């Protein structure tokens, strides 16, 4: 009877301080101590944003014929999908939205539409228009809820391992150095399989070159935080027997052959007495300058450290590009110095221009890494903005390539505890408050909230603080139910979206480790089943 029926189940979100801050070193989110929950951070205060009010239902949607025609188009599009693309994939582009839960995808599409001044819910991210999609089960060998290390082993090497480890089987326990260096426990990545087939390879990330997700293409470590020799030593291990990831990337197969490496994290490659291109000292204890090593190994390659240098690369006459655009991870795009740090789309464009020169094709891994980092900070606005930057890079990659020969797969490694909650009206600002419901305490609540995080917005009496009128901006922290140092990953399935040769294999509910095997099948690489096998091809 009342204009809206509300389940007033959720009674949470209550405030003490309002705060926010710049990007923090995201290592803290992923360090093994933190997985057991211990970090404390301080945050600064924030500035103003207007809370959105919902828009009226678009006029055409009141006509049932509108929806029937939307459905008719869907039927026709799905019938089209019966024409299977069974070409051999020359190229593979894998896009990884770190922490890009399905709630993140849905919220990001709303923000995309609302930035065009539409209601938003009806909009789509580029990859949502891909012809085929599946679900991916993200648990790891010893973890119900995964991290970005063991998931990288799954979706890049095709084997599930233990949490915090990368490129090694589940025989390797956390921090067991000797086990990780045993070749019998190391598992190779689809980047290595592609190199064997003569393809060009590489990766791009918005985090560091030695961060967990991209490291799945090249590293074998018992601890994702072995990014430099100093890091290895900080865990009581000897870098002489347990090689750090920066060292592995530059000197070992398959990393040493990568044609493209772009992201942040320059400090891991330089000795502590040398300043990097961003004015900060390196952190290596072994005196190695891995950037010089890389340049000596690749006389036809080019090293770039800012956006202008990247955009000036003549991709027709360089063999390799190493781009490191910050000392630590790159900054959140929304708050970055755009004259210094390129966008994910800009990095993607330069990389593809170079890679497309190889007539045998290429494999590249491209990560939107700060979708996750921002979720850890419960900064939903930043996370959605990063998702839209990721979306732009994917659209560009699809526009630059031919679906007849280039397979693009978009997925996430794991979810995050973000929820889209209540019964907000159509077109309500996805970053604002639900204008159509109150908590049992009579106060409004934000449509987006997290399960765990730093701010419950509860006052000293245990009462929820009134969020209405509290200024917020894209950098603001959203409420969480359980107080924790940061937001945590979630264990529900994530989406897999595919376009190109054998995209129809990406269907159903998949074990995450099947993903690289499906890509390899389409491209006839690796040691598993491929479409080139006589006994499999049909
Ligand atoms: Zn994370």
From TrEMBL:
Query: What Gene Ontology molecular-function terms does this entry list?
Result: alkaline phosphatase activity; metal ion binding
Gene3D superfamilies from the entry?
A: Alkaline Phosphatase, subunit A (3.40.720.10)
Identify the Pfam families for this entry: Alk_phosphatase
Binding residue positions for Zn(2+): 98, 372, 376, 413-414, 489
Q: Which PROSITE patterns match?
A: ALKALINE_PHOSPHATASE
Q: How is the cofactor bound?
A: Binds 2 Zn(2+) ions.
Please verify whether the record's keywords include Magnesium: yes
The family database entries (SUPFAM superfamilies) matched by this protein are listed as:
Alkaline phosphatase-like
Keywords in alphabetical order: Hydrolase, Magnesium, Metal-binding, Signal, Zinc
Enumerate the PANTHER family for this protein: ALKALINE PHOSPHATASE (PTHR11596), ALKALINE PHOSPHATASE-RELATED (PTHR11596:SF91)
Specify the protein name.
Answer: Alkaline phosphatase
């Amino acid at each position: 009877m009342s204009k809206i029926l509300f389940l007033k189940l959720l009674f949470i979100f209550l405030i003490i301080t309002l705060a926010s801050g710049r990007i923090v070193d995201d290592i803290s989110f992923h360090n093994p101590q933190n997985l057991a929950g211990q970090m404390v951070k301080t945050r600064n205060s924030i500035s103003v944003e207007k809370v959105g009010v919902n828009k009226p239902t678009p006029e055409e949607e009141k006509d049932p014929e509108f929806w029937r025609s939307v459905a008719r188009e869907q039927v026709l599009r799905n019938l089209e999908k019966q024409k299977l693309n069974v070409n051999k994939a020359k190229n593979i582009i894998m896009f990884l939205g770190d922490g890009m839960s399905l709630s993140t995808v849905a919220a990001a599409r709303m923000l995309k539409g609302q930035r065009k001044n539409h209601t938003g819910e009806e909009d789509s991210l580029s990859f949502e228009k891909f012809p085929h999609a599946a679900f991916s089960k993200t648990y790891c060998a010893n973890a119900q809820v995964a991290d970005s290390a063991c998931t990288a082993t799954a979706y890049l090497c095709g084997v599930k391992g233990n949490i915090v480890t990368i490129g090694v089987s589940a025989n390797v326990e956390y921090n067991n150095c000797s086990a990780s260096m045993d070749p019998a426990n190391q598992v190779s990545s689809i980047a290595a399989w592609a190199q064997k087939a003569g393809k060009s390879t590489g990766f791009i990330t918005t985090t560091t070159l030695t961060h967990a997700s991209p490291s799945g293409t090249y590293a074998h470590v018992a601890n994702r935080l072995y990014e430099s020799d100093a890091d290895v030593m900080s865990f009581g291990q000897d870098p002489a027997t347990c090689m750090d990831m920066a060292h592995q990337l530059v000197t070992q197969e398959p990393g040493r052959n990568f044609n493209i490496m772009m992201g942040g994290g320059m400090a891991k490659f330089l000795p502590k007495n040398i300043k990097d291109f961003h004015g900060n000292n390196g952190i290596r204890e072994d005196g190695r300058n891995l950037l010089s090593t890389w340049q000596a190994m690749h006389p036809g390659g080019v090293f770039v450290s800012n956006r202008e240098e990247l955009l000036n690369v003549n991709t027709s006459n360089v063999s390799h590009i190493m781009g490191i655009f910050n000392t630590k991870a790159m900054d959140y795009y929304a708050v970055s110095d755009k004259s210094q740090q390129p966008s994910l789309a800009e990095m993607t464009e330069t990389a593809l221009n170079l890679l497309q020169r190889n007539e045998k094709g290429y494999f590249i891994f491209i990560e939107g890494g700060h979708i996750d980092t921002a979720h850890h900070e419960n900064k939903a606005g930043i996370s959605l903005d990063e998702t839209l930057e990721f979306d732009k890079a994917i659209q560009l990659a699809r526009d630059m390539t031919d679906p007849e020969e280039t397979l693009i797969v978009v997925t996430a490694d794991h979810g995050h505890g973000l929820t889209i909650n209540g019964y907000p009206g159509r077109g309500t600002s996805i970053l604002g408050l639900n204008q159509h419901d109150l908590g049992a305490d009579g106060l409004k609540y934000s449509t987006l909230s997290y399960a765990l995080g730093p701010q419950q917005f509860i006052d000293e009496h245990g009462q929820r603080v009134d969020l209405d009128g509290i200024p917020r901006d894209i950098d603001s922290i959203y409420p969480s139910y359980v107080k924790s140092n940061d937001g945590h990953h979630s264990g529900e399935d994530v989406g897999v979206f595919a376009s190109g040769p054998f995209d129809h294999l990406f269907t159903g509910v998949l074990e995450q480790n099947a993903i690289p095997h499906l890509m390899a099948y389409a491209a006839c690489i690796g040691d598993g089943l491929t479409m080139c096998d006589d006994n499999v091809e049909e």
